[in-house]
């Protein structure tokens, strides 16, 4: 059994200001996506310029925050927020959904593309490789915060998380950081290194994330307020990944086989 590190939630003090690890993971994720976007914008086949990337990042932050919060409210805890609607705005209490954030970013991609004469597939292909580093840092933030831990395990890499009882659990946050963050980034970045059929970079991202998240959910503890939501073993995270898997696989199949 591995010992869970006892993190100081504060990364650094600057006078009266305390920078917390969890919040800084979001900063690192946004910064990494921004810098990678400016680098990609210099490739000759991309229509976005570094200056447009700067503008897009602002739009994307709004899409992630608003979409992530609304998604959590609708997908994971709607009854609670119907009873206490003002709690919807209490973001500091936690509660963000990746799938909601993705929907928010997709909406931003569509709007920003229309405003800059780029199609939705073109924008999606440009943005998709920029997302996994943010997912990596986000999951590391979950691990440091000791939240979203995994199910019970007797494997030697199990950990006892604070507030999660006395039984060792899968460090599922690290599994997600590795798969949805590091591995997915390498895969999508490599694939996007040269021109591909329209929409295929985005489709590969959706397929890869959907498969990785679906697999890790078998080690992740289901949300307490929901439990298993289908077939006595499927979680909400897995349900929300199915459309991503189907759409990503279908687009790639169409682009490489059916379109010929």
TrEMBL record:
**Binding annotation for a 1,2-diacyl-sn-glycero-3-phospho-(1'-sn-glycerol):** 139
One Pfam family matching this protein: LGT
Q: Where in the cell is it found?
A: Cell membrane
- Residues that span the membrane, as ranges: 21-37, 57-78, 90-113, 174-191, 198-216, 236-257
Q: What's its membrane topology? A: Multi-pass membrane protein
Q: Which pathway does this chain act in?
A: Protein modification; lipoprotein biosynthesis (diacylglyceryl transfer)
Q: What is its EC number?
A: 2.5.1.145
Keyword list (alphabetical) reads: Cell membrane, Membrane, Transferase, Transmembrane, Transmembrane helix
Q: Which InterPro entries match?
A: Lgt (IPR001640)
Per the annotation, which location comes first and is thus the protein's main one? Answer: membrane
Instruction: Specify the superkingdom.
Output: Bacteria
Any one GO MF term held by the record is: transferase activity
Q: Which family does it belong to?
A: Belongs to the Lgt family.
Q: What does this protein do?
A: Catalyzes the transfer of the diacylglyceryl group from phosphatidylglycerol to the sulfhydryl group of the N-terminal cysteine of a prolipoprotein, the first step in the formation of mature lipoproteins.
Q: What is this protein called?
A: Phosphatidylglycerol--prolipoprotein diacylglyceryl transferase
Task: Provide the species name.
Answer: Pseudodesulfovibrio portus
Q: What gene name is listed for this protein?
A: lgt
């Amino acid at each position: 059994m591995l010992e869970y590190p006892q993190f100081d939630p504060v990364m650094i003090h600057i006078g009266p200001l305390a920078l917390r690890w969890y919040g800084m993971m979001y900063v690192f994720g946004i910064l990494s996506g921004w810098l990678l976007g400016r680098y990609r914008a210099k490739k000759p086949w991309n229509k976005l310029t570094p200056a447009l990337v700067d503008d897009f990042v602002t739009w994307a932050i709004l899409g992630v925050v608003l979409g992530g919060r609304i998604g959590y409210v609708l997908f994971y805890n709607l009854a609670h927020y119907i009873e206490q609607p003002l709690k919807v705005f209490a973001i500091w209490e936690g509660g963000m959904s990746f799938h909601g954030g993705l929907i928010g970013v997709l909406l931003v991609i569509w709007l920003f593309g229309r405003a800059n004469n780029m199609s939705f597939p073109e924008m999606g292909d440009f943005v998709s490789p920029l997302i996994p580093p943010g997912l990596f840092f986000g999951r590391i933030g979950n691990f440091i915060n000791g939240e979203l831990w995994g199910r019970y395990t007797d494997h030697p890499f199990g950990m006892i998380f604070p507030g999660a009882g006395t039984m060792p659990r899968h460090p599922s946050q690290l599994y997600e950081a590795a798969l949805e963050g590091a591995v997915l980034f390498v895969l999508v970045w490599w694939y996007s290194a040269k021109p591909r059929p329209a929409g295929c970079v985005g489709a590969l991202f959706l397929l890869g994330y959907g498969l990785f998240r679906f697999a890790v959910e078998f080690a992740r503890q289901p949300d307490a307020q929901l439990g298993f939501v289908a077939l006595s073993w499927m979680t909400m995270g897995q349900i929300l990944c199915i459309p991503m898997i189907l759409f990503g696989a279908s687009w790639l199949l169409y682009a490489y086989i059916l379109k010929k």
